[in-house]
Specification:
Elements: H1 2-34, E1 39-50, E2 67-78, E3 81-85, E4 100-101, E5 107-110, H2 115-119, E6 131-133, E7 152-156, H3 157-163, H4 166-171, H5 173-177, E8 185-188, E9 192-193, E10 200-204, E11 213-219, E12 223-227, H6 235-240, H7 250-267, E13 270-272, H8 277-282
Parallel strand pairs: 3-6, 6-7, 7-8, 12-13
Antiparallel strand pairs: 1-2, 1-5, 2-3, 4-5, 9-10, 10-11, 11-12
């Protein structure tokens, strides 16, 4: 009888240890799955009316057509810091009585509000940002970049060399001036994991410009997603892999498109086209945009 009782006690002790071990394992798994809480907010960086949509294909597919583009910028909040992704249209457009049309008539652009006013919706100021990164340095993605002069600019070396080069400074000085005040610079080559945990990754996808990049996010609430930069401007160009005539390198753009789609499949990521109005409406917004 005594031996029987000893055996029962031993069994119960092992059962308790195993139960505690399982509980600890479950807790560890949950902690690992949840990962850092990364938040994304989408803001309105203006509107682009493309009066000459034919510029966005190598053939005559869009000849005589026009289209309205969204022009978003994004705030990514991470426990280790905050990132501004893209910077909308120039803030000199804010307050103009009428939209501005480019001298060649190809684009009509407008912007309703500044970055400072919009950041107030989430209780932030430019001083709260450790990083700023642009998909590329065209005027509709660098509008308020200089406001973040105290942040570190994460930029592909090829893009930096392009926008600070002699040709751009002489022929398109406004493109250079849009980033001129950014003095804290981290030049990168290829993909870059911003916070070192795989949740916020700059993906090198050149072609539209020499150092064009897209942004991969792994969000706790929304799952993995990709912000396209200007790899694709709208749905049809993604579906048919059409490339604008003003891209820096057409062949490289096609290669980047293939790599982008393969990566999206690998990660099971939702793709959001930054200039597509419908995608802008789907993205997580600050409270004022949720009503």
């Amino acid at each position: 009888m005594k031996n029987y009782l000893v055996l029962v006690v031993v069994i119960l002790l092992f059962a308790c240890k195993d139960s505690n071990k399982q509980a600890n394992n479950i807790s560890g798994v949950q902690e690992n799955i949840s990962g850092p809480e990364v938040k994304l907010y989408t803001f309105d960086g203006g509107t682009v009316i493309v009066n000459t949509l034919g510029l966005f294909a190598q053939d005559s597919t869009y000849k005589g057509q026009s289209k309205e583009f969204a022009d978003a910028f994004y705030v990514i909040q991470h426990p280790k810091g905050n990132l501004m992704w893209d910077a909308g249209l120039p803030e000199s457009l804010v307050g103009l009585p009428e939209p501005y049309t480019s001298p060649d008539g190809a684009f009509t652009v407008s912007r309703k509000d500044s970055v400072l006013n919009q950041l107030k919706e989430i209780g932030m100021t430019p001083e709260d940002f450790q990083y700023i990164s642009l998909s590329h340095t065209h005027f509709d993605h660098s509008g308020h970049a200089n406001t973040f002069k105290d942040a570190t600019w994460l930029v592909q070396k090829d893009e930096y060399d392009f926008v600070t080069g002699k040709e751009v400074k002489e022929k398109n000085p406004e493109m250079y001036n849009a980033i001129r005040d950014l003095k804290q610079i981290k030049k990168i080559k290829g993909d870059f994991d911003v916070f070192g945990d795989g949740t916020v990754v700059l993906k090198y996808m050149p072609g539209h410009t020499p150092g064009h990049q897209v942004l991969f996010l792994d969000l706790k609430e929304h799952g993995p997603l990709l912000l396209s930069g200007d790899l694709y401007h709208f749905y049809e160009n993604r579906e048919y892999k059409r490339i604008p005539i003003f891209n820096y390198d057409v062949v490289q753009t096609g290669k980047s498109m293939k790599e982008f789609e393969a990566f999206a499949r690998e990660k099971g990521a939702k793709v959001y086209l930054q200039h597509q109005k419908e995608d802008f409406k789907k993205m997580p917004k600050a409270p004022q945009y949720l009503n």
